[in-house]
Structures are given as structure tokens and as C-alpha cells.
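SAMPLE LOG
Freezer: B-3
Tube label: C17
Construct: single chain, 148 aa
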Amino acid sequence: MDLQNLTLYQMSGEKMRWLAQRQTVLAHNIANGDTPNFMPSDIEPLTFKEFVGESKHVPMMRTNPAHRTRGSGETKIAKTNVNHLSPIADGKARVREGRRPFETSIDKNGVILEEQMAKVDETRTQHEQVTALFKKNAALLGTALGLK
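STRUCTURE (predicted):
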């Protein structure tokens, strides 16, 4: 049984990659906290919609009239095919330039260390949540397979 084919593991892996990339961007912002004219950046949030929407490598097929389409409005999503849910194909997060902050220093540096540290802590918390979910799911699979 290949665990890499399970959607939860694919989503967990993608979230971990996103968190690692965000931590790198935030560390770069903090490291340049006193660089003149430096503006902080962040990466675009990873949303569940990216996993549910049309994938770049597995097109969504409408095999049932009850399935959701772009024009169907608010309908419930029903997973009837394992290919309907898939992670981001390239595995790269998109970096977005940070907004123009309200506070800038005399040398036009826009890094607010307290804000960056809050984002680092948020990233750490999300990492712990994904890790805990991953461990719980592995334990559940182990129990189901009679390994524990």
C-alpha cells in the first residue's frame, strides 16, 4: 500500500512544503530588517480550493449531472472519483509582494519585526497542526491494518 497515493498525505506534504517556503521568506524579511528600501514579502496562502478546483495535471470530469461545475453556483461537492482531488502540480508557492506598510523607518525599510515574528509563530503553529494530523492518520491506518 503506497501512502503517497492517499489524498490526505498528498495534501499534508503540500502544506508542509508551503510552510517551509513561507518560513524561508519570513526569515529573509527578518534578516533584512535594517536594509534600506527593503519591503517585506510573503507567499500567497495555500487554500483548500486549490486542491478541489481543476488541477493542471488531472482535469476535472463531469461524470454525473449532480457534479459541480463553474456555473452551477452553490452546490455540494461529491467525490466520486479519486482523480477529482489533487495537489498543486508544480509544488511551488507564489511569492507576493508585501503591502505598503503603515510604518516605515527613516531609511524606507518596511519590515516590522513584531509582525514578522507573529507570522513565524503562525507558521510554526500550522506546522504542528499538520504534523499532528499526519501522526494521527498514520496511527489510525496502523490500527486498521492491525499493526498496533
